[in-house]
Specification:
Layout: H1 4-11, H2 13-20, H3 38-41, H4 45-55, E1 80-82, H5 84-87, H6 92-97, H7 107-110, H8 119-137, H9 145-170, H10 195-210, H11 230-245, H12 256-272, H13 284-287, H14 297-306, E2 321-328, E3 347-349, H15 351-356, H16 401-406, E4 407-408, E5 412-418, E6 435-441, E7 465-466, E8 485-490, H17 491-504, H18 508-520, H19 533-547, H20 554-560, H21 569-572, E9 576-582, E10 588-594, H22 613-623
Antiparallel strand pairs: 1-3, 2-8, 4-7, 5-6, 9-10
Length: about 625
């Protein structure tokens, strides 16, 4: 793997100037040439603050703001199929599905929309900026010691966050940068820490942030929106300790007890400082609105949470969200039901994710030990024989409330402004004129507006549309309703992190308590208390798929649960769809079939991102060593 500091040395002074010299804010713009020295920056309070602000500029927005309005990792795993893969095959999903990527042409080297992409270069640039700030803040001319303490804590935490992004995507050991380098340094002896070492460094930075009495637990004013808090430090420790213990990264060591202790403390500290699960319906537009078309309070609560922003207040309605980015989620024009605005449907949920939602009695639909008899193509479901509620020919009845809150399926309804007149080809809805009305979402092949189609952008590829982040009534006249932001860290994840670590470390009772807290808030039955360790781990993993669906966790989860020598063939090679047929009498027949051809991004090398080829070539020329991730 490549050391970015060595890259800096080779690329020379031009790149260093981009790191050292800033003209992005008025306070750093100085006549006559707009350039000032670092020494001058830290001589003034305002310039010091502006430098810290510039350290925030590299946070990936995530959410729906990957290149060309897509969900990135959500579409690159078995959760969803990107409708742009066929309509615009040159975009990332099309390239990945077709296997047309290399270390020189991978998403990581191409795009950086909203900081989503080009991670290797951008994250190392951000890490260096944070380190420069930390090298200088102690002696900087700062008016308030409280500000000095808080700013230092934020820089530690930002550096930890950027390291976590590198670990998630690249999955390899990295150089640990405690002090900043200059281009004249000798980088030939630079060493990389192991994955575990880097996680320990992240925890060290998080602990430094937590030690500051001036870093708040929650942002309480809009003027400080998106600033980091102690809650993020606990969230990072929780997440990354789980990753370090996972098979892909643990180098054969058992770190589960350590991960359990970290997660137990993180959850306790977050709860004692005002964080709690979103446990009640708060807005009349969900509670008292029949046009929301959700069958129960659990579904309404879950959809309401994701369709609204966290507020920056002392006691906000949403006490669950730890961090949200500026990425917009609620743009019906580019995601959801494409026919609403006539453009594209974006991320279409897979049959695989639909299969994960239990029935309301708490029984899995499939046998979690082997969900499919044909483990690669997924066309032969291995049904759970203990489930008496599930009917393959009435597949959407009696499901977990989170299913209805997250996915539009054949026969569901949506009330909004529809931009077209119905024709006789849509018998569920004909006759009706364009306008604000309720429409049945019919996904059978041949339905001209919302039916499944292999290439049309506004259609569904899978027989499903994404609902989770959409305001129930957004459309042409209510495009920005709620305009939810991407909630990239929340307490629900911490509960599930603790559940997994506790189960793996043989604290089964605590694992049950944590996972059942998640289930109870949507009125799902608790997991049975007599599950074996392996059975409990299977249920917890399935709970993560359901609770965290489409939040960009599954892509990383399925990888970290693999060993370094495995492939993604059983999860990512074939993605299936609901093949719905409308019968003459108006009933439906349900079958399964592939979305399209196989995806060619399942080989072993796709467990990790490639390091950009230019950087690998530079390192090889310098040292004769190949620093690339396996297979690339």
């Amino acid at each position: 793997m490549m050391n970015n500091n060595m890259i800096i040395k080779i690329r020379g002074l031009a790149l260093l100037l981009s790191l050292f010299l800033f003209s992005c804010t008025d306070v750093l713009d100085q006549a006559p040439d707009g350039k000032i020295s670092l020494e001058d920056v830290f001589k003034e309070d305002e310039k010091t603050a502006a430098y810290l602000n510039s350290c925030y500029l590299y946070i990936p927005a995530e959410g729906h703001n990957y290149f060309f309005w897509m969900r990135g990792p959500v579409d690159w795993c078995d959760e969803a199929w990107d409708t742009d893969a066929e309509a615009e095959p040159w975009i990332t999903s099309g390239q990945l599905y077709g296997g047309n990527v290399s270390a020189a042409s991978h998403f990581n080297t191409q795009w950086a929309d909203n900081n989503n992409g080009n991670y290797w270069v951008r994250m190392w640039t951000a890490i260096r900026k944070c380190t420069v700030f930390l090298d200088n803040i102690e002696t900087a001319n700062v008016k308030s010691e409280a500000n000095r303490s808080r700013w230092k804590a934020e820089a530690h935490l930002l550096r930890a966050y950027y390291y976590s992004v590198l670990l998630k995507f690249f999955g390899c050991g990295l150089p640990i940068e405690r002090t900043s380098y200059i281009y004249t340094d000798d980088f030939s002896a630079t060493e990389r820490g192991s994955y575990y070492d880097v996680v320990q460094f992240i925890i060290e930075d998080c602990d430094a942030a937590l030690a500051s009495p001036d870093l708040p637990w929650r942002i309480t004013t809009d003027a400080e929106a998106y600033r980091f808090t102690k809650a993020i430090a606990e969230g990072l420790k929780s997440r990354m300790s789980l990753y370090a213990a996972s098979p892909l990264y643990n180098e054969g060591q058992n770190y589960w007890e350590e991960a359990y202790q970290i997660n137990k403390t993180a959850l306790a500290n977050l709860k004692s400082n005002g964080y709690e699960l979103y446990n009640s319906i708060n807005f009349s537009s969900w509670k008292n609105n029949p046009d929301v078309h959700l069958p129960n309070d659990g579904a309404k609560l879950f959809n309401e949470y994701f369709s609204n922003n966290m507020a920056y207040a002392t006691s906000p309605t949403d006490k669950e969200t730890i961090y949200q980015t500026s990425a917009g989620q609620d743009w019906i024009n580019t995601e959801g039901i494409g026919a609403v605005m006539g453009y594209k449907s974006g991320s279409c949920p897979s049959q695989e994710i639909v299969d994960c939602f239990e029935t309301i009695d708490g029984q899995p639909v499939l046998n979690l030990n082997q969900p499919y008899l044909d483990e690669i193509t997924h066309l032969q479901p291995n049904y759970n024989t203990a489930n008496t509620l599930y009917d393959p020919q009435d597949p959407y009845a009696n499901r977990d409330p989170r299913f209805y809150a997250s996915i539009y399926y054949n026969g569901s309804k949506r009330t909004c402004f529809w931009i077209f007149n119905e024709t006789s080809e849509s018998p569920e809805n004909f006759p009706a004129n364009k306008g604000y009305r309720t429409r049945t979402i019919a996904t059978w092949y041949g339905e001209p507006q919302t039916g499944r189609h292999p290439t049309t952008r506004k259609a569904t590829r899978t027989g499903y549309f994404l609902r989770k982040f959409l305001h129930p009534n957004s459309g042409q006249e209510v495009v920005t309703a709620a305009h939810a932001r991407a909630k990239v860290m929340r307490l629900g994840e911490i509960y599930l992190n603790l559940a997994e670590a506790a189960a793996e470390a043989n604290h089964l009772d605590e694992a049950l308590q944590a996972v059942n807290a998640i289930r109870t808030r949507v009125n799902m039955p608790p997991l049975p208390s007599n599950l074996s360790k392996d059975e409990l781990i299977q249920r917890i993993r399935n709970e993560r798929r359901v609770e965290l669906a489409f939040e960009a966790h599954r892509y990383f989860d399925v990888r970290r649960w693999h060993t370094p020598n495995e492939t993604l063939e059983k999860t990512d090679r074939w993605i299936t769809a609901a093949h719905v047929t409308r019968n003459i009498d108006g009933t439906y027949t349900y079958a399964r079939g592939p979305v399209s051809k196989e995806r060619l991004c399942y080989q072993n090398k796709f467990l990790k991102f490639p390091i950009p080829m230019n950087d690998v070539n530079i390192m090889f020329a310098l040292t004769g060593e190949n620093w690339q991730n396996p297979g690339w």
